[in-house]
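Subject: Protein record for review, amino acid sequence with backbone structure tokens
Category: Structural biology, sequence-to-fold work with a learned token vocabulary.
Format: Residues in single-letter code; tokens as whole numbers, each standing for a residue.
Body of memo: The sequence and its backbone structure tokens, given next.
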Amino acid sequence: MGLESKIYATLTTSATLVAEIGTSIYPDHAVQGAKVPTIVYHRISGTRHNSLSGYCGLENARIQFDIYATAIDKRREITDLMIGALTSSTRFKIVAQESPIDEYDDDIGLYARTIDISIWNHE
């Protein structure tokens, strides 16, 4: 199973997260008319690690998560639930290395939060 599929499986099996957003979780981009709040994620960089024996099956991907909500508090709540689900995953390990970037998107009328997370994955 590829990393993006593992992320989706992890997020959609978190009972507390699904209770808040249902399955409004999308790789790459949200579908038009997606229910809000929503999470969109995509890979922005990464490396595969090698040893003297060759590729060791370990990758470190940097994944960008964008959280959209109609209220500031809901944006924060969804982010916390998402981080909790990712942190407790048995599929991979994460490190949230930087603080999130918050903004209000006038074009779509939603509060947005972007956070980059380093994910260590055994392929």
Q: What stands out?
A: The first strand starts at residue 25 and ends at 27. Helices lie at 3-12, 15-21, 72-87.
